[in-house]
Amino acid sequence: MKNYIIVFIAVLLFNCKNENSNHMDTNVAPEVKALTANQIIDKSIDVSGGDRFKQSSLKFEFRDVYYQALRKNHEFLLGRVLVKDNDSIFDMLSNVGFERYKNDAFVKLEDSIANLYAASVNSVHYFSVLPYGLNDKAVHKTLLGSEQIKSKDYYKIKVTFDELGGGEDHEDIFVYWVNKDTFKVDYLAYSYAETSGVGMRFREAYNERYVTGLRFVDYNNYKTENSSIPLVGLGKAFEANRLKLLSKIELKNVTVELVDN
User: 223 pairs with which residues across the strands?
Assistant: First the structure.
């Protein structure tokens, strides 16, 4: 009988402990998992147009040059048209490479020159649809933490590229500031190689508009004359008015058509 009493008390205590534990669990707030860099960029792409970019024909003007981008699933054609001395020059970058035409005649170029023209065409189209493109296989994203700019909270994400598939400028490094409330890219900075070393730029998005469901912005383009400021520090340097406005990046006459499969 004594042994039965001991077992009964042990079971009773165990059940009470479980009941208390279960009762306490209901009062504990569920754990909120921190977002990863990939998840943040996924959300940013989604609010900027998402899959519409994959099936789109875009046209715009930038600094008196006409640009057109056709994207259909995994195929793309990025073009620009320049008019110079009554000649029309058409540059075309696609899945199969780069080609140049002058007044409808194919122009044969040395590989080194073709690569420079291809990088120039790709650069304008790349910036025009950001953050779309940041999920390409050659892209690596790292969450650097959080930062405030002008009293707004941002995720701070570093982006680097593989040499294979990363393009002519694969050594460039980018930092994106993604608004924690809207998940839109409000600021970005990047470093690039130049003859005198490494250059840096900081861009502030403005003039946001949606065209057929796709988000486009213009940028105030800043530079720093203080080489001691690191790339990741340009956000705070901008907030402290330590950057100099260099130019404006403005896309004009933007039109969008969605392409069927």
Answer: 244
What pLDDT digit, counting tens, does each position of 135-179 carry? 998 999 999 999 999 999 999 999 998 876 656 666 889 999 999
Secondary structure in 3-state letters for the chain = CHHHHHHHHHHHHHHHHHHHHHHHHHCCCCCCCCCCHHHHHHHHHHHCCHHHHHEEEEEEEECCEEEEEEEECCEEEEEEEEEECCEEEEEEEECCEEEEEECCEEECCCHHHHHHHHHHHHHHHHHHCCCCCCCCCCEEEEEEEEEEECCEEEEEEEEEECCCCCCCCCCCEEEEEEECCCCCEEEEEEEEEECCEEEEEEEEEEEEEEECCEEEEEEEEEECCCCCCCHHHHHHHHHCCCCEEEEEECCEEEEEEECCC
Q: Which domains does the chain have, with CATH numbers?
A: 38-254 (2.50.20)
Contact 188, 176 (CB under 8 A): yes
Question: What is the distance between the alpha carbons of residues 132 and 48, in angstroms, rounded to a whole number?
Answer: 8
Can you name the residues that pair with 58 across neighbouring β-strands?
69, 256
Confidence at residue 172, expressed as pLDDT on a 0 to 100 scale: 87
Please give the pLDDT value at position 58.
Answer: 97
Taking a C-beta distance cutoff of 8 angstroms, is the pair 190, 173 a contact?
A: yes
pLDDT in tens, 46-100: 999 999 999 999 999 999 999 999 999 889 999 999 988 888 999 999 999 999 9
Find the angle CA(75)-CA(177)-CA(211) to the nearest 5 degrees. Answer: 50
